[in-house]
C-alpha cells in the first residue's frame, strides 16, 4: 500500500544538469527516468513540472538588461526542452508519457488542457507539464502548486539536492538541524527556501502538503510515496 496515489513531482532544471555547469546531463536524466519507471510500476499516477534554470532564467537575463516578460517567455520555452528530453528518457524505459505545454507548440507537444491531463493520469501515463504556467513573472515552483491543485494531486514532491529543510545552511553550519515537519506559516514567516512564497501560499490555501527530499538518493521517490520520512514535510 502507498500513502499517495496521485503525486505532482517538481523537478528543477538543475536536477537534470547533474554536475555540469549548464544544460542537461543524459546520465542524470536516465537515472531519473529509471527511478520514475519504478514508481509507475506501483500504479502511482505521476505528473511532473520541470523547471528551466539549467538553460535560462528570466530574472537573471532581466538583471542584465533584457525585457523581463520576454526573458520569462524564453525561460518557459527552455522548460519545454527539459520536458521533451525527460519524455524521451522515460519512453526508453517503456513509460508512456505525454508532454502538455502551457504555451501552444502543437508540433511537439499537446496543449495543456486540465481534463486531458487528468485522463492521461487515469490511464497510467506520466504527464509532464512544460512551459511553466504560461505567464511571465511566475516560476515553475508556483506552476507545480497550481497544477497540483488543478489535477487534485495529494502532495507536491519538491526534489532537491539536500535531504530536507534545515534551520541554517548545513554546508556552513555543522550543527544545522533538519526539520522533520514544518507549517506553511513557519516557512512563509521565516522565508525558508522551500519553494517561493507564491507556491507555498497556493499549497496552503488548497491544503496540499509539500515533501522536500533529496532526489539523488536512489529509491527516495518511492519511499516518499509510501509515506516514509525521507526529508521535510510542509503542511497545515
Ligand atoms: N517562467 C515563467 N513563468 C512560469 C514558469 C517559469 O516566466 O510560470 C520562466 C522564468 O523566467 C524562470 C524560467 O522560466 O526563470 C525557468 O523556470 P524556473 O526558474 O522556475 O526553473 P527551475 O529553477 O525550477 O529550474
UniProtKB/TrEMBL annotation:
Allosterically activated by GTP. Inhibited by UTP. GO terms for cellular component: cytoplasm. It is an enzyme of class 2 (transferase). It is found in: Cytoplasm. Residues 18-23 are annotated as: Involved in allosteric activation by GTP. The keyword tRNA-binding does not apply. UMP binds at residues 52, 72, 133-140. GO terms for biological process: 'de novo' CTP biosynthetic process; UDP biosynthetic process. Coiled coil: none annotated. It catalyses: UMP + ATP = UDP + ADP. InterPro entries: AceGlu_kinase-like_sf, Asp/Glu/Uridylate_kinase, Uridylate_kinase, Uridylate_kinase_bac. Keywords: Allosteric enzyme, ATP-binding, Cytoplasm, Kinase, Nucleotide-binding, Pyrimidine biosynthesis, Transferase. Its EC number is 2.7.4.22. Homohexamer. This is Uridylate kinase. It comes from Aphanothece sacrum FPU1. The gene is pyrH.
Amino acid at each position: 500500500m502507498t500513502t499517495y496515489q496521485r503525486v505532482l513531482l517538481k523537478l528543477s532544471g538543475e536536477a537534470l544538469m547533474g554536475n555540469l555547469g549548464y544544460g542537461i546531463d543524459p546520465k542524470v536524466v536516465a537515472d531519473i527516468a529509471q527511478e520514475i519507471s519504478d514508481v509507475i510500476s506501483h500504479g502511482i499516477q505521476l505528473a511532473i513540472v520541470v523547471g528551466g534554470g539549467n538553460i535560462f532564467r528570466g530574472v537573471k537575463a532581466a538583471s542584465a538588461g533584457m525585457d523581463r516578460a520576454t526573458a520569462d517567455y524564453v525561460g518557459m520555452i527552455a522548460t519545454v526542452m527539459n520536458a521533451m528530453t525527460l519524455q524521451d528518457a522515460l519512453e526508453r524505459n517503456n513509460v508512456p508519457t505525454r508532454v502538455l505545454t502551457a504555451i501552444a507548440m502543437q508540433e511537439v507537444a499537446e496543449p495543456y488542457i486540465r481534463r486531458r491531463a487528468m485522463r492521461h493520469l487515469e490511464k497510467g501515463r506520466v504527464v509532464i507539464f512544460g512551459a511553466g504556467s504560461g505567464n511571465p513573472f511566475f516560476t515553475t515552483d508556483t506552476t507545480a502548486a497550481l497544477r497540483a491543485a488543478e489535477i487534485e494531486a495529494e502532495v507536491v514532491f519538491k526534489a532537491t539536492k539536500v535531504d530536507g529543510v534545515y534551520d541554517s545552511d548545513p554546508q556552513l553550519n555543522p550543527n544545522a538541524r533538519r526539520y522533520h515537519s514544518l507549517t506553511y506559516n513557519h516557512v512563509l514567516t521565516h522565508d525558508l527556501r522551500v519553494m517561493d512564497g507564491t507556491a507555498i501560499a497556493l499549497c496552503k490555501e488548497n491544503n496540499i502538503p509539500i515533501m522536500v527530499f533529496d532526489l539523488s538518493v536512489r529509491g527516495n521517490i518511492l519511499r516518499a510515496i509510501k509515506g516514509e520520512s525521507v526529508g521535510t514535510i510542509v503542511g497545515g
